[in-house]
Amino acid sequence: MDPVVPIASTLIVISLFIAVRYAAECYIRPFRPCRACQGKGRKPNRIGRGTHDCRHCRATGLRLRLGRHIWNHARALHRDKTR
After folding, report:
1. Alpha-carbon distance 76 to 82, whole Å?
2. Nearest-5° Cα angle at 17, 61 to 72
3. Measured in whole angstroms, how far is the alpha carbon of residue 70 from the centre of its chain?
4. d(CA 62, CA 73)
5. What is the pLDDT of residues 11-44, one digit of tens each?
6. How far apart are CA 65 and CA 75, in angstroms?
7. 3-state secondary structure of 32
8. What is the pLDDT of residue 1?
9. Which of 1, 11, 30, 34 could disulfide-link to 68, CB 3.0 to 4.6 Å?
10. What distance in Å separates the CA atoms of residue 53 and residue 46, rounded to the nearest whole number?
């Protein structure tokens, strides 16, 4: 048996596992903490005093995951085309 076949099949199984796990994560928890404000919803001002609302997450501290955003877009396209 060629040694490339088990390595390739292992890589395929690992990548499928990662994809299924990310899809499950997007289904169970569609939002992730905002990277700009670290999930706090507020950011410090540039001059060092006070804070202001994070404009990336609109002061919620949460952002929609990329996979969930793609899923929502695909569902909307399907819904619009089948009406």
Report:
1. 10
2. 45
3. 9
4. 19
5. 999 999 999 999 999 999 999 999 999 999 999 8
6. 15
7. strand
8. 66
9. 30
10. 13
At 68, is the secondary structure helix, strand, or coil? helix
pLDDT above 90 (res 83): no
Q: Which residue has the tokens 């939002």?
A: 31
| Helices 66-81 + 4-28 axis angle, to 10 | 80
Q: Tokens for 29, please give them.
A: 């928890």
DSSP code for 62:
E
Give residues with Cβ within 8 angstroms of 30, minimum separation 6: 64, 65, 68
